[in-house]
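Annual report, structural modelling task.

Input specification for the zinc ion complex:
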Amino acid sequence: MNYRKFQADHLFTGFEWLSNDSVLITGADGKIIDIVPAADAGEGIARFSGILSPGFINCHCHLELSHLKGVIPENTGMVDFLVRVIQQRGFDESIIKEAIAQGEDSMLQNGIVAVGDICNTAYTIDQKKRGRLLYHNFIETMGFIESTAMQRFEASRAIYDQFARLYRTPAASNSIVPHAPYSVSAALFQLITRFPGNNLLTIHNQESVAEREFIEKGTGDLHRLYKALNIDISFYKPGSTGSLGAYLSHFLPNQSLILVHNTNTNESDLKYIAQSPAPAGSFGKALHFASLFFCLCPNANAYIGNPLPDIDLLRQYKAALVIGTDSLASNHQLSVLAELQTINRHFPHIAISELLQWATLNGARALQLDDVVGSFEQGKKPGVLVVSEELSTVERLI
Ligand SMILES: [Zn+2]
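The model returned the following structure:
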């Protein structure tokens, strides 16, 4: 058997640092064989400066929006950003598909091995068939008017069925998911959460200040969005349960949920989760930290003009953090490392090992792909990266 042997200044396993004397051994196909002291590793060790790390996991992307790179100006604010994305129709399918291919190429170059990808269309299917990256496809549905729920759900179900045909166990790699708390009716939430096998879910959560105002008070800038869309939401009355409580109760005990953005998630939200009923009960388990992941997309937040999440507060509550790039409509690149750089700049006291864990093992757990990727453990094929110590560059070794 052909082995490959790697050594660098530091080795991060996904869990912890190992001594710089450690040599990572893989098969020719990248499968992890062992980690041994250099003295026991024999000949042919490839040496690098920097950190050996498992491949990165991008927990939130919209690959199908890659053709919008540079199209939408920065700092428009949330509502104008959404209006502009919705207005961007009329691109040729060939342009969309070419941009999808380039977007995937760049993720590969940036050391990403697995992606949680939001899909409103089937445009990414041909690229995904090539099998160069692992994907969990989150087929996104939205509709705030109760009476359209079934029609909206069936449209998403038809896209889900196209993706499902690519996989032997479709539910392991595909879900139908709600877009955001302000764009999904209770009836549509019911259809989503009760769809068979739909256990891994994600939602855009607390992305803007306008969202919190809309959910909690029923007022604010989001009304401008519905006006622009010509949708009458005069029926809408906010609940009394707060921004998270308004919708988390829709989810079922066996479901896990990736909350994306969390830019104004506050202490009362986190207390709400911490104080929700114990996991043993049938109600409320999905609200618990055990089944929630908080995805950070700081470069997209900055692009749109939203605040950055209070990452220290999330850490205080031991929230499981993961990283996403969002789309090229709201980001200059699809790079997990570029997101880590931004977090490192704003939160320099957070250890590099903690950031790397969010980008590797935590992401793999969130996408339920941790039996294959996320850490250097025997039998996995997580990819092998060398990352510079100051997080400025990444090179893919496998
Ligand atoms: Zn998104």
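The chain has two domains: 1-54+374-398, 56-372.
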